[in-house]
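STRUCTURE:
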């Protein structure tokens, strides 16, 4: 082969090596239980026999596929459910969670009633604050929460407040939620320990983007969420994600894995 041909091949090989390193990192970051849905082989990427719905769902969302579920659930609400599941598994048994983001499906629709319900769930604070235009707040930036109780179920516990972002302008939302300020605005009484802020995004972030997003908060990106939920999702949510994936793949979009 002429020398010019080798010069053309070398940049391609370097780029290929970089991508193998990236994909290998994602495989490792998703954990040891095959939560990364692809196998890296000599022939390229191969989809596993039972791929993780958590990862594939997030991958498709990050590629811009945002069609509603067949049951009418918006894709961002599905991601909130997945994020709440990840938060619950990170803190404990995965059961002490709630989706607070608007529009609410399990908690009361009105903001005041939803905050009152949240106070009852957490057993922290006294009630919802009585302030002007309270019910116009929708969710005031709080999408999901999780907590870890002690057997005595008394105040003073670990609580996580999270915000989710599925769109391309996710960076603008990365530091909007300030749990301490949120509690001061909306909850009367005392939260014994300020909730931990967390940010959930369905993307596999570059190191530079991750450095920005994780300043002063927990960052749960595609790989971290998959490591927590890849093989442990409750059957109803797992099935809904699978159904959404099957419908979305008909669009024929594909890309960065």
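SEQUENCE:
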């Amino acid at each position: 082969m002429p020398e010019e041909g080798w010069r053309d091949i070398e940049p391609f090989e370097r780029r290929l090596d970089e991508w193998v390193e990236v994909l290998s990192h994602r495989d490792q970051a998703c954990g040891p239980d095959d939560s990364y849905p692809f196998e890296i082989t000599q022939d390229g990427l191969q989809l596993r026999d039972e791929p993780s719905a958590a990862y594939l769902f997030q991958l498709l969302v990050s590629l811009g596929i945002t069609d509603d579920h067949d049951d009418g659930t918006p894709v961002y609400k599905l991601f909130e459910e997945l994020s709440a599941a990840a938060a619950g598994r990170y803190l404990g048994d995965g059961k002490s969670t709630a989706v607070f983001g608007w529009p609410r499906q399990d908690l009361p629709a009105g903001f005041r009633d939803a905050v009152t319900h949240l106070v009852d769930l957490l057993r922290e604070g006294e009630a919802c604050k009585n302030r002007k235009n309270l019910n116009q707040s929708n969710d005031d930036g709080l999408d999901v929460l999780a907590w870890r109780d002690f057997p005595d179920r008394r105040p003073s516990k670990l609580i996580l407040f999270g915000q989710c972002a599925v769109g391309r302008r996710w960076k603008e939302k990365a530091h909007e939620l300030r749990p301490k300020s949120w509690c001061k605005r909306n909850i009367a009484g005392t939260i014994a320990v300020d909730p931990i802020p967390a940010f959930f995004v369905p993307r596999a972030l570059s190191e530079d983007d991750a450095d920005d997003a994780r300043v002063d908060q927990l960052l749960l990106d595609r790989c971290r969420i998959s490591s927590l939920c890849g093989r442990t999702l409750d059957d109803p949510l797992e099935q809904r994600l699978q159904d959404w994936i099957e419908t979305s793949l008909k669009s024929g979009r594909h890309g960065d894995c």
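REMARK: Residues 130 and 178 are 20 Å apart (CA to CA).
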